[in-house]
Amino acid sequence: MNRAHAYPVATKVLFVILVVPLSGLFAYIGYIPFTFDAPDTAMIVAFFLFGAIPIILMLTGVVEIFRCRVTLDDNTITRTGVFGTKTLRLIGIKGYKDGNSGIRLFPRDLNARAINIPYGLSDFDRLKASIAMTVPEIKPDAESDGPALPEAIDPVKEGAGKSLPRAKLITRALNVTSVIAAAWYYFLPSYPSISLPAALCVLLPPAGIALMHFSRQVVDIAADPKSGRPDILITLLAPSFSLSLSFIMFNILNYNKVWPVMTAVFCIILASMSLVSPSIKGNHGARRIPSATMAVIVALMYSFGFTVTTNTILDRSEPQRYTASIVKKYIGSGKSQSTNFVIGPWGPVGTEETIIVPLALYKAREPGDSVTILLKSGLYDIPSYEVTE
Questions:
Q1: Planar angle of CA 252, 253, 256, nearest 5 degrees
Q2: φ, ψ for residue 284 (rounded to 5)?
Q3: Could you state, in order of their start, the residue ranges of all structural domains in the chain?
């Protein structure tokens, strides 16, 4: 009797919800050169490729997730996807291997092609158990210090390991989204609004911590690769790193008021990771020290970035206006090539100071000109200011 396994409707809807706004973002990135007065050909080509390639990959993924079918009958297993159909006889399967994206079935015939069965299919555990009846059982690795998952010991056994494929799928989605959000916030924060990438970077690390909790210790900060558990470190690290660079985007008048709020956030985030991470909670294991170290690093970066970012973006106070003269301007010599003004005293600042300004403002003003400074009180009573024309 044939039984087809496909992605459930909920997974398809979630994937489309993620792809539609991301495709719009990359389409906008590809259009950016056309907003300039005289874009050169190299710039147009570079932005077009940077926008088009991710869109093509994401649309291919959408088609794949809707077309993917794995059909199992008494004699054969067939996989249908965006790149065609592959079939293997069950008695011709030499073995299989669990990978990051799913199971890979290896044929005995060297001329036949291997078949990949992705995680997330409906009744994935039953499908894996059926396959396991015709191939060698996977044995646990004695050198792994992570808790042995039922699926990694015996593919037929059901129980706590049933959530592993789903956890791997969600972890992969969070990791990919986190890298995109971190790059978006760092390289193109104002397209279309800084609030959107900032919100993603603020919410994704807590989402990763929540996933560790609700996955019942399947997901970890820095899981042992031999344990088969998914690793959420990218979701925690990438957005936190981008947030920690918020001091480049936002001008804080007095950092002394940052530290109390940062300390409170640091303690909450570190305690949360320590309570839900299997490798940190365990009494032994080679991954405990690396996981604890990464937890401290993530907590430091996230707490600083969270404090500076939310203090400025969520601030709804009325700004005070000041005027300052430009003493000189220059472009930084580092890799960032930042555009800088040295401005004279203004309001509560009695000395000259160097600030990073947008490229458009840098081109529009010369030494001797004046700029307007908007000083706001800040969400946490941490004054911040913005330099405008």
A1: 90
A2: -155, 175
A3: 3-136, 162-313, 320-388
